[in-house]
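Quick illustration, no need to memorize.
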Amino acid sequence: MEHSINYQILEQIKPNENNPKEHDIEEIIRSFKRFGFTNPLIVDSNTGKLVAGHGRLEALKYLKAREQQAPDGIKENNNDWLVPTIERAFLNENEAMAYIIADNKLTEVGDWNNEKLSDMVNELLANDVNLTDGIGIYNLNDFIDELNQLETTAKDTAETNPEAYEAQYLVVVVAQNEKEQENLFVELTERGHECRILN
């Protein structure tokens, strides 16, 4: 399915009142000022409600209400801010709500390659690149210390004790309720799998 970018008037974009995600609006605004508006909002064309980008929408409204300059990437027409959006028809409102959760959770699933991240961070620092403003790293020194420790631990495990290092293959299973989650945990644990309960 091809997607086209449409520009909608900021005030006419309807957030989903059931969106459960909370956002750091100040950090989003700092990101706008540094990088511009780079990620279009996604709107359910059936309902006209937002399914991805609630934090960005709230940050734009905050800036406009205070008569701040529109971020790069936002068009202006007289007094209107025109926001890039992608419209997508979801099967029904339940599917749209499921996507809201997926869009927010998928960024949390997975991990960093600590060695590559450390190399990138060190290279940026060597070039005097600001790694705090608009990026969400609130305490750079603590972040670097933690990153270096993770990198060292990973190298020690793989290089000095290779027999202890084994590749891990992960499967995420989503339960419908707490009881099913408990049953799955017990069943898979009894079958010899290492399991963790995530809430």
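DSSP finds six helices and five strands in the chain.
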